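Handout, page 2. Input:
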Amino acid sequence: MEVVLGYDDTSRRIPIALNAPRVESTTARGLAAPRFVLPTGGGIAYGGFDIDRTTREYFLHHLGDIPDALTRGSAMVTLWEDMLDHRARPIDVVEQLIASVRRESDELNLQRMLSYIQQGFWRFVSTAERDALTPRLERTLREGLDAAATPTVKSSWFSALRDTARTPATLSWLEKVWRKSETVPGLPLAEPDYIQLAEELAVRGVTAWREILAEQLTRIENPDRKARFAFVQPALSSDEATRDAFFASLRDVANRRREPWVLEALTYLHHPLRAQSSLHHIPPSLAMLEEIQRTGDIFFPKRWMDATLSGHSSSSAARMVRTFLAELPPDYPDRLRRIGVTTAIGHRSGFDPWLTSANSCCSSACLRSSG
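Output:
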């Protein structure tokens, strides 16, 4: 592996071969104390790394100051994993990402950073923290969108803004973009873009959500996209009874045949803004796992739970999953038991104190030994 020692204006790379339980690098002896020590330098080390406190604090305040794009990207991923392992507070990580994103010049780093911001915003920070972050986040994303030089980069900024927008002013602007009364300079929008924009506006319950969904359905020319949009539409409704009826329809295997359509609908049904009203769908979704496995694609049970838990981070949701796992009979399929655990880990490492990393794999024995 390649350890990077970071200083104010330069860095020192030290190759290290982990060929023994303990390896000591003599190359670093006598060097000035660095601002940070990055064990994942060069992006080639894979594993869980417990970075020191000084390094963590530097990344939490100076991530964007790291001059080399590869080192900066590796530091970003390492900091994110540090958060998943409960060593850095989500709000601190998200705030640093927002502070750094406008300065990011590497397109791959930018896309990863925007993805982390969206995940942190919806899954890891508290509701109060999210409310406080929203105006600054929207302002940052709009500035980034306006300044982006290429359609590809503009698309990344626009997607992040569309998917995190919450204030009336930004939602009003996005609705004007959907109505084509305003444009995004330098960013041509295609049919799929307008479909997703209509869906995001509807799930936020904008005043004209019914009109938007109805008109979008008539706009769609591609027959497959039209059929998919029509299928997903009830899950976007602001009427809870309509959403409940849609979920009930999924008990019929015939309504689950188009699995990508089902997953998209479930994601909107359990959108973070709808999480409280969709909590009661979690237990029956877990109860359906065995049937989902019998009647669907081999990957469908995991994806079914991914979509179901995608918008939840509350203690109530966690309790429902724990109760389900605790009450399973001994002969319950172990693969499905693990799906209930690893899905919770992947969507909210703070879902429970013993859940550690999105890359973890826990068995029922792990759960017992971890308390």
